[in-house]
Amino acid sequence: MRLDDYFVTSEVERSRLKLIKELSETFAERAAKHDEAGSFPHENIEDLKAAGYVKWTVPKIYGGEEISLREFLMYQEQLARGDGSTALAIGWHVGMILNLRASHAFPEPIFKDLCESIMQGSGLINSCASEPATGSPSRGGRPETTATKTDGGYRITGRKTFSTLSPALDFILVTAGIADSEEVGEFIVRGKDVRIVETWNTLGMRATGSHDIVLEDVFVDDAHVVTIKHPSEKSQRNNDGGGWMLHIPACYLGVGLAARDFAMKFAATYQPNSLPHPIADVPHVEQKLGEMELKLISARTFMYDLASRWDRATEEERPRLRPYFGAVKTQATSSAYEVVDLAMRVVGARSLAKSLPLERYYRDVRAGLHNPPMDDVVYKMLAKQGTAEFR
């Protein structure tokens, strides 16, 4: 069975995967250009819109496909085989809709309006919470972005970093501290109301458009205030256990699969004149190829098993899966990084050539080690869970 088909469970999924694979192959042809320039792949996002992919996690009640987490990961993985940046960028939108669907974190009127905008072709959204001074919001820092109450709503001023998909966003979920209060709010801001500062110039994942966004006295009416709460209160978006965040390891496993494909084809077809057979039959090369397969099989099986468990779980059971989702991310990104390294060792010095994609895969997959949750957080969660039964 081909790796492409291993996790397919129905003909509907097979048909959708075929469409995504065709898009992935097109994106692969554009990837080097956007990587070199650090430019945002607008044409890829438009292709994904035209294919309907941005609607697939929207609930059926609003006209979407309401696909499962497991199925979503399958498509994210495939997209990343063509272009990791495009997959990671669109994954935040598609995954966030799945998260909102499961967690009921938005007031229903806001979620309904958002879904209807998506179905009409103008509803791309991401959450932008990281800031220069506070870093990742998962570390608990209070946002320096400030929301000041005014007639009919709030006026928001501040700056957000790592705002992935920023050049294409129609809506942005922004966190801000409430002026003269300890409370923190979440607000829906229109993409056209913010200023993008093109700061994203990185080693890998260069085409995600993760620039800074600047809010300069942006007005948000009361109807688009999602929450106002004390910092000690947990976000309702966490109620689903965070399964949607598996789009991150799925993306990096997709990059690892692309490196695997390249190395396998190279080893099976390259035969130097010093050998009577392709290098795939050389023992030390064969071992590296086998190691690559084992790492990918292990990480992917773990990820898809947890995704299926999340799909079957009740709303009460899902939060208990959170430590395992973190474990998937840590194992998958580490495995993908190791697979790309092994692929480059198989191909040899020519793997460094800019004319081949391996050096881009190597840079892209490195970024996965810095996506949330971080390893120290994962190990802490697992340790606490493991010792809890003996306390």
Automatic annotation (TrEMBL):
Keywords carried by this UniProt record: Flavoprotein, Oxidoreductase
Boundaries of every Acyl-CoA dehydrogenase/oxidase N-terminal domain copy: 23-99
Keyword Flavoprotein: yes
Span list, region Disordered: 129-153
Keyword Flavoprotein: yes
Residue ranges constituting the Acyl-CoA dehydrogenase C-terminal domain according to the UniProt record: 250-368
Residue ranges constituting the Acyl-CoA oxidase/dehydrogenase middle domain according to the UniProt record: 128-218
This protein's name: Acyl-CoA/acyl-ACP dehydrogenase
Upper lineage: Bacteria, Bacillati, Bacillota, Bacilli, Bacillales
